Amino acid sequence: MTSGDVVRSNVNRVYRGFNADCGERAEQFSAPRLTHPSGADNYIRLAINPGKGAGYWDVARLHDEMLVCVAECTYLSPFDYVVSPQNGVLSIRMVVSGEMEIADRDGARVHVERGAAEITSIPGNYAHEMRILEQERFASLTIHVRADSLARLMGLGEQETPSMLASFQDPDAGFRSCSMPLTSAMANGVFDLVKAPYSGALRSRFYEAKTMEMLCLFVDAMRQCSDDEEQPGSPSVQALGRAQLARRILEEHLVTPPTVEQLARRVGVNRTRLRHDFKCIFGITIAEFVQARRMEMARQLLRDESISIGVIAEAVGYRHAGNFSAAFRRHFGVSPRDHRRN
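Structure (tokenized):
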């Protein structure tokens, strides 16, 4: 058996039930180092192949219903692999550095940036692609848990399970994802795992305890998001911060504003939540905000008669002066030329 076969066999053993075959993933790693020999079936450290990058992945199989992955690594080229769990799985990710993408088989993509806590619902035998982007340190914690067992493992009763989380545990939920900003406590917890000084049995016990702590932090954050949805008239501090950050990003990129999907990723929340928070706090939609700011910028530029209307159109994000003039008329009730003349 070659060293590559050994790695593949070990990775598949630890990932059993959570991925049908880790062949492509195993090719990225050099020979594994078993950091807990007495529990080698459940805990393994995988070093990145020097030709592929640097760093490691720690994979801990805490029990049959939970798999924990801690990564601190850098790839020279994008790291792509396919995941196909045998049973329905919830994957909870907390990314403190780097970024990654998740693509379902229908082509839809979820982008997870640094500073985001994200949960993905994956049906059983549903193959999807994972990609970790290159040339940047990637540090994260991922907790894979059987979709039907998370609440039970945490001892949550029906009334204690946040409505957002309950929707992900629905067996008919299908492939879906939701993200939120990473809290400072979550980020510190990821760093604690990445920099854990323990080895052997102590490291395993530390992983078990820290994983439950991180799940508590995540569920509590989801509970706050659920409470926000139930009380739309009273936005939380987190919702206010997300909306204000989104507004600053839009103001800095009025000419080529990000899409709602891109903006949502930047602030660490899903599109629906961002649209709701933005409208609730500022009283207008994201599109209306961008349009209003563009028109105000154009109105200011029209004061300088040395600037042509075509140049002003380009300055506020319009390729064609005719489209700009039509938008300006709809907004102010008068054409740019007449506004300047008046």
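The longest strand covers residues 53-63. The two ends are 84 Å apart (CA to CA).
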